[in-house]
């Protein structure tokens, strides 16, 4: 017969399949849910025998990938943000196996939806293979001796994750009252209907009845609730968030530079020792002198340990290509930095190298300046001190630009201009 | 030359997210991965909604759900994340769901080097769909492009009802640069039009441009259906009926049919027998090389591709008018060169390729001068 929600005549399932009983139960339960009309319901299905029913629904339907229907439905539930819309997921035990993660996540967040797990204890569509929910001892074409270990208990899993409602039933007779109860839950509800696949389950487990079989393997009916957890509510969309372009400060070119053409600098030190912030400060100071600048950071993925390198390019022209082949200056604050940048420093054919006195002199054609950079303001400010001395010695930008940028930066709160000037006076150029 | 109104030290991740949101991106669905993390971070500041998900399969599934519900979702990832997303990208493509996926290339294979840039996913992106159906892919070659093409990606996604890639790489979106923000235009959100007809909505009935009208699920007037499997215009699953095959073929033709509106490339034509061809992060090296060559008196034409997929017919038309073509891209085999000219190549076509570092202008100059 053709129902209000589902054309239940000629359901596309094998004779005797529990999936057909589920179809009839959904029709009846939805009709009994008086507040709902067909277009208030979104049925989400996926790959597996159960999924082919979707074209018989008169509701909205979304038919996706094997096992991913709960992830898809989570997005739909969050996207609609409409508690009057009922989202129903129909999935098999195979789908629940591959997509278990989505089910746990939706249960954990208590997303508004009802998941109907059609657990016929095997993959019916593909030949009856064992699934994650196949119980111990149940025989399948791929495990004809019976599954030796336990299958997963989807109800207990989602209950542990925080589902508002989890219920296991046997797919026998009319169980529409259970579905009606599940549909009415505010939050995540799951009904596991245990079935016997007439094509594979019955053949490999002859003579066994569903009630006896489920009892013997610990799949007896169960109802589990979490009553203390609110259903998931999406925060309403932020309106008028600030433009990312407005929130970044502009830098006015109020100082002068003394650069001709382009120069590239490598600042090398250890992670956590302020290399990147010193490089950024130098970059901003150069912009305040009207130069074009690029800055790249390089560090191990662990971020907080090992080397930290910054490459800076300064130019009187706009910089398009941001790669750096040869460096004109190297500022080395630590052994980590030296080890990582050694080949490039050794490859320098001129230019200038500033290096901490604690480190060995690399073999390089660059003019070398050695000072106790790590001692004067501490290791965490060695990179800053190196950058400041680079500015002082080369005069490529006004020193005042560096001090002003420092004063406006976070570093400037702890390293004042006076402190930095004091340390600079201790250095030999 | 006009005085820069506002110069800042910024990275292009900021520009990509700003462009996407201005054009109508609504929900950022994020899973962390280097080197796409800045995109995630900016999204949390700027997107109307930003959500964490437990993995990249979930990212694409949630995005598809949001898209089905009428929202415009965006994500950002790198190859390992893309690998997990791939099946779901095919689903979104088949369902014809608007969304934007930013792919920040890093060096592979596998997890490779997360903090090293690359252009190694081009071949994969070009053939990401089973059956060879191209997913529109825009590829920024400058900071300005990062803003503009990210916004255009939203537009393409909505107008063509499709996932769209913005293909970039680590060096492009993590490098800080002094940049005049007054160079940036602004975008209005792309207008979304829902089906309003009185006849029952047919979800995959194409309009004149080959693109079906869109209606989110939850409509109180019309039943709405979406399907990832082969289907007819009503989204009913079909094995291989004529109508269903026609619908599947339309997924390719709708891209090609609308291509002229989304053809982005820069072409500098000179009186030369040589064309310099590049895209993405290597484009700047090509531009520098062209400048150097021209200063030396060596005329060279240059084509910077920005719409990578579907491949624009103009690329081969232009390339075939040159006896020499030098293609610069940061991968070993010359992936886009192979797409354009086939594995056997063509006489006069050569590549400048490398991995683990950016291609230098000098290498391109050398190849052109060879």
Tags for this entry?
heterodimer; A: 429 residues; alpha/beta; 6-stranded mixed beta sheet; 13 strands; 31% helix; B: 370 residues; 8-stranded mixed beta sheet; 5-stranded mixed beta sheet; 16 strands; 21% strand
Write the SSE topology.
The complex is a heterodimer of chains A (429) and B (370).
Chain A lengths: L17 H15 L8 E5 L14 E4 L5 H12 L5 E7 H6 L1 H10 L3 E7 L34 H8 L3 E6 L5 H8 L4 E7 L6 H4 L5 H7 L5 E4 L36 E9 L4 H13 L4 E7 L8 E9 L13 E4 L2 H12 L5 E5 L10 E5 L1 H4 L5 H13 L4 H10 L2 H4 L2 H9 L4
Parallel strand pairs in A: 1-2, 1-3, 3-4, 4-6, 5-6, 8-11, 11-12, 12-13
Antiparallel strand pairs in A: 5-7, 8-10, 9-10
Chain B lengths: L6 E4 L1 H11 L4 E4 L6 H10 L2 E4 L3 H13 L4 E5 L1 H17 L3 E9 L5 E5 L4 H5 L10 E2 L4 H18 L2 E7 H5 L1 E5 L44 E3 L14 H17 L6 E4 L5 E6 L3 H13 L5 E5 L1 E3 L3 H7 L4 E6 L5 H7 L7 E5 L7 H9 L1
Parallel strand pairs in B: 2-3, 2-4, 4-5, 5-8, 7-8, 12-13, 12-15, 15-16
Antiparallel strand pairs in B: 1-9, 5-6, 7-14, 11-13
Helix pairs in contact in B: 1-2, 1-6, 3-4, 9-12
Structure write-up:
The complex is a heterodimer of chains A (429) and B (370). The model of chain A has no long low-confidence stretch (mean pLDDT 94). In chain A, strands 2-1-3-4-6-5-7 form a 7-stranded mixed sheet, with helices on both faces. Chain A has a 6-stranded mixed sheet with strand order 9-10-8-11-12-13, sandwiched between helices. Chain A is built from 15 helices and 13 strands. The termini of chain A are far apart. The longest helix of chain A has 15 residues, at 18-32. By secondary structure, chain A is α/β, with parallel strands linked by helices. Helix content of chain B is 36%, strand content 21%. In chain B, helix 1 (12-22) packs across helix 2 (37-46), helix 1 (12-22) packs parallel to helix 6 (143-160) and helix 9 (283-295) packs across helix 12 (361-369). In chain B, the strands form 3 sheets. In chain B, strands 2, 3, 4, 5, 6, 7, 8 and 14 form an 8-stranded mixed sheet that branches. A 5-stranded mixed sheet of chain B has the order 11-13-12-15-16, sandwiched between helices. A two-stranded antiparallel ribbon of chain B has the order 1-9. The interface between A and B is large, with 71 and 82 residues. Strand 2 (60-63) of chain A pairs parallel with strand 10 of chain B, so a sheet runs across the interface.
